[in-house]
């Protein structure tokens, strides 16, 4: 695999995360329900993933039996993110909402890395990492005040 592929995918994912909340919020305003907009967003995403799985992967569904029950919570986290972002973006502004969410994600990521939670390898919390997260937290405050 090309070494740039993960970086490119991450960059495109970041763009997607930036445009998803205002798109879902616009849908919510249009149809009168943020909850229904989040449901439609997940339904469209599910259909796309089914298509890609059928074309490119086809891992047997029976493999799902090997997963522990807590491993299925990722969909719940994603659903809450989509709903929370569609609700918060028009009320806080997209930049404020995203910096708050990113800062929160980084703090949670430091804890997850530190203790090797959810099957990830342990990674120490270094001074440099703390400074990086602190800068993002300061950025979140500045963007919110700006």
Overview of this structure, please?
The chain crosses the membrane at residues 34-56, 68-88, 94-112, 124-143. InterPro entries: YdcZ (IPR006750). With 146 residues, the protein is mostly helical. It folds into two domains: 1-92, no CATH class; 93-146, no CATH class. It has five helices and no strands. The protein has helices at residues 4-31, 34-56, 74-92, 94-115, 127-145. Helix 1 (4-31) packs antiparallel against helix 2 (34-56) and helix 1 (4-31) packs across helix 3 (74-92). It is globular, with a radius of gyration of 18 Å. The model has no long low-confidence stretch (mean pLDDT 93).
Please count the beta strands (DSSP E, at least 2 residues each). 0
Counted by DSSP, the helix tally is 5
Q: Low-confidence runs (pLDDT<50, min 5 residues)?
A: none
- Tell me the number of structural domains: 2
Taking the sheet with the most strands, its summary is:
none
Radius of gyration: 18 Å
Helix and strand run: HHHHH
Distance between the termini: 42 Å
Average pLDDT over all residues: 93
**Which descriptor suits the 3D outline?**
globular
The helix fraction, in percent, is: over 70%
Give me the secondary-structure category.
Answer: mainly alpha
Beta-strand portion reads: under 5%
């Amino acid at each position: 695999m090309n070494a740039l592929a993960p970086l490119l995918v991450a960059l495109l994912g970041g763009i997607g995360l930036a445009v998803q909340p205002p798109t879902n919020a616009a849908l919510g305003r249009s149809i009168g329900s943020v909850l229904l907009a989040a449901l439609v967003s997940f339904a469209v995403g599910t259909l796309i993933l089914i298509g890609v799985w059928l074309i490119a992967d086809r891992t047997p569904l029976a493999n799902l039996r090997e997963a522990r029950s807590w491993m299925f919570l990722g969909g719940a986290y994603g659903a809450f993110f989509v709903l929370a972002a569609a609700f918060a973006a028009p009320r806080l502004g997209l930049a404020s909402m995203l910096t708050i969410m990113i800062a929160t994600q980084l703090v949670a990521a430091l804890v997850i890395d530190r203790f090797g939670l959810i099957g990830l390898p342990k990674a120490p919390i270094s001074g440099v990492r703390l400074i990086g997260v602190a800068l993002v937290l300061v950025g979140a405050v500045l963007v919110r005040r700006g």
